[in-house]
Design goal:
By secondary structure, the protein is of the alpha+beta class. It has 4 helices and 3 strands, in the order ββαααβα. The longest helix has 16 residues.
Length: 100
């Protein structure tokens, strides 16, 4: 299995391997480190907070056993449909206090 912190970047996507293993206290540090290396990726059209809420949603679903095959790794994309943004905004805020 891949180590947390491994990622690949394309113009519209950041793929994070084993993202479920990264605690929420490290989300922002990891994201800022990636942004520093790849400042031209279009995913930065989204805020760090938006990325953190998506990551929190994935980690919460993974911890609950929901869509485990899809929530162990994570893709941060740009653009996102409005309903995907809304879903992560709502679920990510609800999940935040409960995830590690």
């Amino acid at each position: 299995m891949s180590e947390p912190g491994e990622y690949s970047v394309s113009p519209n996507n950041i793929h994070l391997e084993s993202s479920f293993r990264v605690p929420k206290e490290d989300f922002e540090r990891e994201l800022k480190a990636i942004r520093e290396q790849y400042p031209d990726s279009q995913v930065w059209n989204r805020s760090i907070e938006s990325h953190k809420r998506e990551w929190a949603t994935h980690n919460a679903f993974h911890a609950m056993g929901i869509f485990r095959s899809r929530t162990g790794n994570m893709d941060l994309n740009w653009p996102q449909p409005w309903y995907v943004r809304a879903g992560y905004a709502i679920i990510g805020r609800i999940a935040w206090p409960f995830i590690k």
